[in-house]
Design brief:
Length: about 110
Amino acid sequence: VMDFQFMGGSMGSVVGEKITRLIEYATNKYLPLIIVCASGGARMQEGSLSLLQMSKISSALYDYHLNKKLLYISILTSPTTGGVTASFGMLGNIIITEPDAYIAFA
């Protein structure tokens, strides 16, 4: 779960590592995965480290989603934008959005 109230829910290296570890845990235990997103995108204060999280998380989801054939549900709340939308936000088997949610990638 991402909290937009803290730094706009931005995804930095710590957030990326935690989400990656969550995905790896679910992969190893063959568990379904639900991630609730509310993010302003990648944390620009961290520079390229925050952008690397997009590929890191997507790579972990590749193993989870395609190789293990496990269920991943992505719940997008308002707002979900930027790198989060471009990476794990739109990779779910099922993508659910709240009514009138602001979902964007520029």
